[in-house]
């Protein structure tokens, strides 16, 4: 493991250094990457994301298909989906990474999926009572969107939470999507390929979740739906006593804690004693960065404005044009799906995004089962998914 772990970290950080080379940006941005490790040694960096901001509810509407969350984990995961579309568009690449099982493609067993993030994901993973570092802008339960005054203890592990915002942020400027901890918990059941790609490929699960983390307690339980909800595996995976699909499971990724990567200018660098004292402050400074980077292997980079979820540096006249949406916005990924559909089915897709998502009944049922494990759920965003 150690061999490829250092290689994987190095590849991620080298790519990030390459991205920021020409810009004076904070070296300590939160990074997340998804790599495939072939036969425990060959690291393929598929996608990389940076960032810790998300747009407010006020940016979300039926016309604006911006990226709702620009957290590093979300960017990396969407980037991975884009990477999958690239692979599926090239027959040689399909054979390299996938084998066909019955009607769908499955990732070959020789590849392990490694998800690497440079701090514990927002939400429950940052809300341990022992943790004094995080929590300045804590992820709050979704009930906040309905009754603002409710006083809910921060450490209630059974509640799902929204993306963090400062407690003083007005409700309209808060983001009603899941925090990253809860997203990863859900990806451990539905996979990271998404509902659309699941029509052609079996779920792809995170095998190793690698987190830069300095404390002495385990984060294992926060990504485990059984531990979080108290429900059984059957409650999650079965309907009327029958498995929804044998392809879905509750994956418990191996969690690997790793030390901070030491940049010369990093506050974590042992030589920077003075800066070391400011770690708390620094973590809050990270959230000041108002852009995100996306890197996808074979597609290059994109800079995203994380305050509005659009491409960085757009002229005002271009803001509402769909072709200027980030490559990983749902709208853009759907265009990729339409190409893939045409390629595989030999006909044009006539449905909108939501209708296609709803066609994957098994995925939908699984999501409903997960929803029933908890008292609350993210705000319903289906009205924003009616595009073609
Ligand atoms: Zn997050």
How would you portray this structure in words?
- The protein has 388 residues and is α+β, with helices and mostly antiparallel strands.
- The chain has one domain.
- 30% of the residues lie in helices and 17% in strands.
- The chain is built from twelve helices and 14 strands.
- It has helices at 2-20, 72-88, 91-97, 180-190, 194-197, 225-229, 233-237, 273-276, 279-286, 330-345, 353-359, 361-372; strands spanning 31-38, 42-50, 52-54, 69-71, 98-101, 104-107, 111-117, 208-212, 238-239, 242-243, 254-258, 291-296, 300-305, 310-311.
- Strands 11-8-7-1-2-12-13-14 form an eight-stranded mixed sheet. A two-stranded antiparallel sheet has the order 3-4. Strands 5-6 form a two-stranded antiparallel ribbon.
- Helix 2 (72-88) packs parallel to helix 10.
- It is globular and about 50 Å long.
- The chain starts with a helix and ends in a 16-residue tail after the last helix.
- Mean pLDDT is 87; it is low at 279-284.
- The structure holds zinc ion.
- Zinc ion (ZN) is lined by residues 71, 73, 121-122, 179-180.
- One of its GO terms (biological process) is adenosine to inosine editing.
- Residues 47-340 form the A to I editase domain.
- InterPro entries: A_deamin (IPR002466).
- This is A to I editase domain-containing protein.
